[in-house]
Amino acid sequence: MFSYRHAFHAGNHADVLKHTVLIAILRHLVHKDTALTVFDTHAGAGLYRLDGDYAETSGEAADGFLRLIGAQAKPAPVVETSSAPTKATAPQWTPVIQDYLDLVASFNAKGSHKVYPGSPFIIQRLLRERDKLKLFELHPTDAKTLSANIAQLEVGRQVAVLREDGFEGLKKFLPPPARRALVLCDPSYEVKTDYARVVAMIADSLQRFATGTYAIWYPLIARPEAHDVPRKLKTLATKAGKAWLNASLTVKSSKLTTDEAGVVIRPGLPASGIFIINPPHTLKTALQLALPQLASILAQDRHATSALEFAT
Ligand code: SAM
Q1: CATH number for position 125
Q2: Number of domains in the chain
């Protein structure tokens, strides 16, 4: 069975990118009256503690979500200049980042940042009563935790937790009854075949339901398969005649380094991206503003940057 547990990674820079984009997409999709179905093919446990053992062991949220919180709470020190002292201020967040921070804050007591919502809770929070959410999670422990977390919401049949393979399970639901859907595909890529399965799932989904919105997260690591994902998705979307958008965020160099003893240090996850097919028309402008701000605040070295490509 898999060893990946999202609890170690909750609130990291990849979650910041993915969840900011997810919220921006959903805000747009719930504008139309027709019911929406959202599929989260790799759901995780749903809710995480940033003060729990998993998160504290990895410390990844400290370089992700908690950095944004730190930037807004502690303005940079006052810079003395030859003229009047310049008072550095907390960042003026772009609207989609502010929306993300507000939504995470709504899961916490005022001023506290202990709880971090995963994609299932972020999505559910933005749905209307008539919308539906289908969550796939294969890991037995996380599926059980997810079911228990969702049960607390008391939303009945609005949300279904399926302990199934999300790549395969999606097929039987497409096209959805009201022909409006968002599919979030966020695998752990722990198994090398996930890269090809993502592309195969999207190819199949576009055949079944070409007008859906698809959001696929991928890591940008030193592995050819990882770089193939956005390249192949671009080809699929273009062949299907669909608009697409590809947003990526790099927080540090992907180069291996060595410590004083000559031991090789791997950079961890230096960058990630999210590829959207049939994106809302509002997303491009929202991300043109937000991505440079994320790159600047989440930078771990001078290689930090962001990129946005799209075809309409
Ligand atoms: N989407 C979640 C979020 O943003 O909060 C995080 C998901 S995590 C990156 C990926 C999850 O997929 C893990 O919990 C893992 O157990 C699960 N998983 C791995 N392979 C799967 C599969 N074939 N079908 C469904 N879930 C799978």
Answers
A1: 3.40.50.150
A2: 1
